[in-house]
Amino acid sequence: MNPNSATRQLLLHGLILILAGLLWGLAVPATPYPRLALGAHIQFMVNGMLFAIMATMLAALPNAVGPRSLSVMVIAAWLTWAMALSEVANAWWGTHQTLPIAAAQAGATGAAPWQELIVTGAHVAAGLGLIVAWGLLIAGFLRNARDTT
């Protein structure tokens, strides 16, 4: 993957996640489980900032992040969309297996098994994707630091 294209994609994902979070924040009070909707709002905002920071670091600082690592980072951005959107759906479903503390605070008692599976799967995939993406980013900066000394 072209570094400029990947950096631009990551920045756009970040900025659009932030915009989606701002817009979703307007809908939070209208959902059956506003506490879970607030969690989705926070996910959009925080992950949007993470991807904007990731893109800024890649664009502004010398690094040795390779094309495959960049592809993983872009895939992590797409997986993050799935997670955030599953939390939007969860504001109506009220699942409780993946986010038990938030669900308890929201008064959610659980949802259909397929709904629980969607929320769990999206969170596991995005969580692993984010861990790997940030690990690769750090490795690319460490590798560059080692190469320049």
Q: In percent, how helical is the residue content?
A: over 70%
Uncertain ranges = none
- How many distinct domains? 1
Structural class: mainly alpha
Strand content range:
under 5%
Q: What is the CA–CA distance across the termini?
A: 27 Å
List the helices and strands in order: HHHHH
Number of strands: 0
State the helix count: 5
Nearest-integer average pLDDT: 95
Alpha carbon gyration radius: 17 Å
Principal-axes shape call:
elongated
Main sheet attributes: strand count, strand direction, barrel closure: none
Quick overview of this protein structure:
It is built from 5 helices and no strands.
Give an overview of the whole structure.
The chain has 149 residues and is mostly helical. It has one domain. The protein is 82% helix and 0% strand. Helix 1 runs antiparallel to helix 2, helix 1 runs parallel beside helix 3 (67-93) and helix 2 (34-60) packs antiparallel against helix 3. The longest helix is centred in the last third of the chain and has 36 residues, at 113-148. The chain is elongated and about 55 Å long. The two termini are 27 Å apart. The mean pLDDT is 95.
Topology:
Elements lengths: L2 H25 L6 H27 L6 H27 L6 H7 L6 H36 L1
Top keywords for this entry?
82% helix, elongated, mainly alpha, 5 helices
